[in-house]
């Protein structure tokens, strides 16, 4: 497991991108849960964010692909709108332990 971020920091910012050993991922904190996904849109395999660390829509309710406007549920990664509707983001195993988010890559 790799230590990703202090959970209290993630709570305050809600979303953050990372690159670990050449792999781009991002974490979202919502409803006392942490969700970590590969930073790759299932439509074209491109990075989701337009600006660094901005993965959520304006309401902070859904993950958004800045290129095509595809929308994904935070809790499941399921695409609910856009060209990849019905597809999903790739979930990264994670856990919160000792005030840190840990991931398994």
Q: Could you describe the 3D structure shown?
A:
- The protein is mainly beta and 105 residues long.
- 7% of the residues lie in helices and 40% in strands.
- It has 1 helix and 9 strands.
- The chain has one helix spanning 7-13; strands at residues 2-6, 15-20, 23-30, 33-38, 62-64, 71-73, 79-81, 94-97, 100-103.
- The strands form 3 sheets. The chain has a 3-stranded antiparallel beta sheet with strand order 1-9-8.
- It is globular and about 40 Å long.
- The chain starts with a strand and ends with a strand.
- The model has no long low-confidence stretch (mean pLDDT 96).
Question: What's this model, at a glance?
Answer:
This protein has one helix at residues 7-13; strands spanning 2-6, 15-20, 23-30, 33-38, 62-64, 71-73, 79-81, 94-97, 100-103. The protein is mainly β and 105 residues long.
The secondary structure category is mainly beta
- Name the strands of the widest sheet in spatial order: 1-9-8
Q: H/E element string?
A: EHEEEEEEEE
Distance between the termini: 7 Å
Report mean pLDDT, rounded to a whole number. Answer: 96
Task: Give a topology summary.
Blueprint: E1 2-6, H1 7-13, E2 15-20, E3 23-30, E4 33-38, E5 62-64, E6 71-73, E7 79-81, E8 94-97, E9 100-103
Antiparallel strand pairs: 1-9, 2-3, 3-4, 5-6, 6-7, 8-9
How would you describe this structure in keywords?
105 residues; mainly beta; three-stranded antiparallel sheet; 1 helix; 7% helix; 40% strand
